[in-house]
Amino acid sequence: MVPSALIPLLLAGGKAALGGIQALRGGQLAKGAKRPTYEIPSAVSEQVRIAKAQALNNRLPGQSAAEQAIQGSTQAGIRAAQETGPSNSSIMATIAALNANQNTASQNLATQGAQFQQGNIQNLQSTLGSLANYQDKKFEYNQQKPFEDKAAAAAALKGAGIQNISSGLTDAAGIAMLSGMGQNNKKSETTTNSGGFGVDTISEGVPKPLTSSDTIGVTNLSASQKKNQTRAQLMSDPEFMKLNAAGQYAKLKELGLI
User: Fold this and answer.
1) What's this model's pTM, rounded to 2 decimal places?
2) 214 near 231, Cβ under 8 Å?
């Protein structure tokens, strides 16, 4: 059976050991945890592919059919002029006008095609901007956030471990100090002082005058000797010994004994 005096020390050691385990686990967690990865939707990649293809095209949808219609109209006008023209000069003037109209219509188509391509380029730029947002999201989810989570978890566990180690060592030091005081105070347990003070029980925690039987054969004691005597009485009080190191320390401080 473990002696009762050793229980607080064992508990303090256990707390320090727990702190060490937590600190170690924090280090392992920083290297370990896995999470699902985020992938850019395939629809976004397909949208970018289509936008790139459109940006390279400077022709309108149906432009070939429009060009053929323009050419067909010009040819039909030329044939009509040749067949019905009153003179060669009139026919030549009509043909020149028809060719000029065809050139103008072709230039209009080319201008509209260039404008159409410019719109496609702007659409590509917008699509690439959207892709960049998805790429940022992918980086944040797959790399930045996991790093931050692991770092925070590791720091929290390491911090808790260090705190428990420190607390355990502090408790152990307090227990050692109280144990040393108990050994030193045993020498003065038989010494009393008229008008001196003892301690009733830890539940009351207040000094009371010693009885006449406590002061037999006592000479004048120094203040230090009186404190030693009171501490010795506390160390033999079962209620006081039930307190942990921190509680014992607080009670001694409350009574002005440390």
Assistant:
1) 0.44
2) no
